Amino acid sequence: MVNGIVRDVAQKILPISVEARYFAPHLDVNVKSDKIYYNGGKVGLKDTLDIGNSGAPELLFRYKRFNLDYIHVHGSGDRNFGYNPLTFDGRQFYGDVHTKSNFDYLKLYMNNPIVSVLGQGVDWSYGLTGVQWKGTVSNFSGSASKRYGAVIPVLGLGAHLSPTPSLRIYANVSGLPLGGYGHLVDFEAGVRYSPLEIVGIDLGYRKIHAKLKHHDDDGTFDLDGPFAGIRVDF
């Protein structure tokens, strides 16, 4: 009983939660500009650079209504382009080419409840999302790197329900149309089981899609797949 009282007080004084996830996504990035192209078309991670998928660590932090979400995806690949070169950062690469890919996604947002009744609720959110991809290619003649990214304001809507005190089902979507500059959509749905009051186990699915365009630069970023995580409420 004493432990329960201490825990309840701590939750009121420190409304903090931390969640570590293993995200197993399919990452598809396609970019085209006057400095990156192949055969006159877009350069794709899988189709052009032969970069496979890898698991992505994800970290979520919450303090009261403030939320931070960070995802990092790394991959590498090798391909022989022969005498039909890959143009990267304005340079041409022939023969065997090694490629590295780093994708970062950072989301900062505030949750605002609309309706909350007996563990069920609807909320809306606002914040900023940063999307960045950096590619590096190298071969016997040298190396080159190119970075694409943007900071995008987002609005979101979410809902959750609790059939039992230890089970929570949730879904949320956020994003923003950017007109001629593209758009961003981030969708997530999952289930949280809490065997203890301060510990939760999450299973779910997430899809992030971004299309960015600036002058002659054009890029699409797709990240989707299942995730599993452990959340601790302090």
Summarize the structure.
The protein is mostly beta strands and 234 residues long.
> How large is the share of residues in beta strands?
over 45%
> What spatial form do the alpha-carbon principal axes imply?
elongated
What is the spatial order of strands in the main beta sheet?
1-5-6-9-10-11-12-13-14-15
How would a textbook summarize the main sheet? Answer: 10 strands, antiparallel, barrel
What string, H for helix and E for strand, traces the elements in order? HEEEEEEEEEEEEEEE
How far is the first residue's CA from the last residue's CA?
Answer: 18 Å
Low-confidence stretches: 1-12
Average pLDDT: 89
Approximate helicity band: under 10%
Tally of separate helices: 1
Structural class from helices and strands?
Answer: mainly beta
Can you tell me about this structure?
The protein has one helix at residues 2-13, and strands at residues 16-23, 26-32, 36-37, 43-44, 56-63, 66-80, 86-88, 91-93, 96-117, 120-139, 142-164, 167-177, 182-196, 199-214, 217-233. With 234 residues, it is mainly β. Strands 1-5-6-9-10-11-12-13-14-15 form a 10-stranded antiparallel beta barrel. A 3-stranded antiparallel β-sheet has the order 3-7-8, with no helix packed on it. The longest helix is centred in the first third of the chain and has 12 residues, at 2-13. The chain is elongated, with a radius of gyration of 21 Å.
